[in-house]
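Worked example

This section walks through a single chain of length 250. The input is the sequence exactly as stored; nothing has been trimmed or padded.
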Amino acid sequence: MKIRIIIFFLLATIGFSSCISLVANYAGKRFEKRMEEAEKNPSTISYSDDFHVYKTRRKFTYEVHQRMDSTSVDFELDLIVLPMIKMEAALVKYLYHYDAKDIVTLGLQEECPDSLDGLCRREITTIDEGKSYVWMHPPRSKTLKILELATFPEIKFNTTEWDSWLYIPKGNWGEWEKTKFDHFYFVDSIKYQHDTIPEYYYVSSFSESRFGKNSNNYVFHVDSGFTEMHYKIENEGTVDFKLIDMSSGL
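Given that input, the structure is written out below as C-alpha cells.
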C-alpha cells in the first residue's frame, strides 16, 4: 500500500511536500529564480520531458463548476507542466481565472489582488507519470481548498482496484490538521479502440476520514490525461472539471 505524508519543508524536501499556494511557501528565492529561468529557456531538460501525457510545457485548460451551499461559481483553470533545472520532479502550476465580480463576492481579493490585473496567485505542486500509472496532485487553493478532503486523480493500468492513505500533520491546513485520509480506487470500465486498445478509463474513488466520506469520479484518456474530474464533498458541495483545451505551450 502506498503511503503518502504531507510535510511542508523548503526546497530540500520539495518532493515531498504537498498542497502549496505560493512558491515561497515551499521554496526560497533561489528556487523561484531557477524555475523562472527554466520557463524562459526552451532547451531546459526536465524530468517530465519523457512523459506521454503531462509533458514539459503542455497546457491543459479546464472548465470548472463549483457549488457551495447556496453559492455557485464557474471559472477556468489552467494546468501547465513546468520545466525545471537540475531537479528530479515534475512540477505543475495552476492558474485560476475567476470573473472580477466573483473575486469580490467570494472574498478572494488577497489571492487575486488588483496588481495582478484580474489574475490570481499561482499554485505550484507536483505530478508523476510512468508506464503503469499517472498520479496528479489536484488544485487545492482559493475556492478549491476543499479538495484536500478528496482523493488524488490517479490511474493504474495494471489493476482495477487499489488504495492508499494520506496524513496531514499538526500545523497544516487548519481544521484538517492531524487527520488521516483513507483512499480507495476502482476502475469501473474501460473504453477500447478497435476492441483491444484502451482509450478511456472510468475510475470511481472515495476518501474516508473523521470529516466523512467523499466520492470522486475521474475520466482518463490515454493521450489527453484526466478529461473529467467530479467531486462530491460531504457538507462542502461539489466540484466538476471538464478539459476544454490542450496545447503544447511552446
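What to look for: The longest strand covers residues 179-193.
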